[in-house]
Amino acid sequence: MLDVAVIIASIREGGTGTMVGRWFLERIERRADMNVDVIDLGRTPLPPLQPARCGDTADAARGLAARIGAADGFVVVTPEYNHAYPAALKLAIDSVRHEWAAKPVGFVSYGGRSGGLRAVEQLRLVFAELHVVSLRDTVSFHLERDRFDAAEPDGADSRGGTGGADDAAKVMLDHLAWWATTLREGRATRPYIR
Questions:
Q1: Fold for domain 2-189?
Q2: Domain boundary assignment for the chain
Q3: CA 189 distance to own-chain centroid
Q4: Which of 1, 24, 132, 133 is the most exposed place for a label (fewest CB within 10 A)?
Q5: Is the sign of the CA dihedral 189, 171, 136, 71 positive or negative?
Q6: CA-CA distances (angstroms) from residue 46 to 49, 91, 94?
Q7: What is the value of pTM for the model shown?
């Protein structure tokens, strides 16, 4: 079994982010080869932007680092805000250091006409700096408000289909499983050098 951390990047309560996250979690939880740890940044303690000289900052960073360290791979579910990804996600990424290394990351994105792909392109650069392998194949929801509304909370578009999202999720998760297994075996055989 692979341990996969699914990071829900939006901290906004309810709305589209909750529905996109739920949609993806339903797909990954169907897999027999993956255990899922949901890291919802709206409910996960993060270090403050301006660290105080108290134990709370270190405790929040240690707790998140332990969860990232336990994962064999990651999937980031992220919106696109102003052509970028959310500030809470940047804080979470930067709060952890070596635990990210030599593991794969996949992306599920949403946001307007671009489907969140500009956020994903920026995240690829950030994760490369942390020695994380980003997967080529992603899941992207363009004009997600048309797909995820009260009438169609499962990602179906107005034509009744999922627009290939189910297939895209399967491909991405298959690739995540391959990379996570291969890199886990590699780390066990030969520790990764940063």
A1: Rossmann fold (3.40.50)
A2: 2-189
A3: 27
A4: 1
A5: negative
A6: 9, 7, 10
A7: 0.89
Strand-pair category, 104-110 with 139-141: parallel
b or e along 44-78 (b: 16 or more beta carbons within 10 Å of the residue's beta carbon)?
Answer: bebbeeeeeeeeebeebbeebbebbeebbbbbbbb
Ordered per-residue pLDDT tens for the chain, 194 residues: 999 999 999 998 877 888 899 999 999 999 999 999 999 999 998 887 766 655 556 677 889 999 999 999 999 999 999 999 999 999 999 999 899 999 999 999 999 889 999 999 999 999 999 999 999 999 999 876 666 654 444 554 433 445 589 999 999 999 999 999 999 999 999 999 87
57-to-38, 50, 60, 61 alpha-carbon distances in Å: 21, 9, 5, 6
Comparing C-alpha atoms, which of 55, 48, 1 is closest to residue 28? 1
DSSP 3-state of 92 = helix
Element (H, E) at 179: helix 165-189
Token pair 């270090």 is found at 47
Tokens for 96, please give them: 């952890």
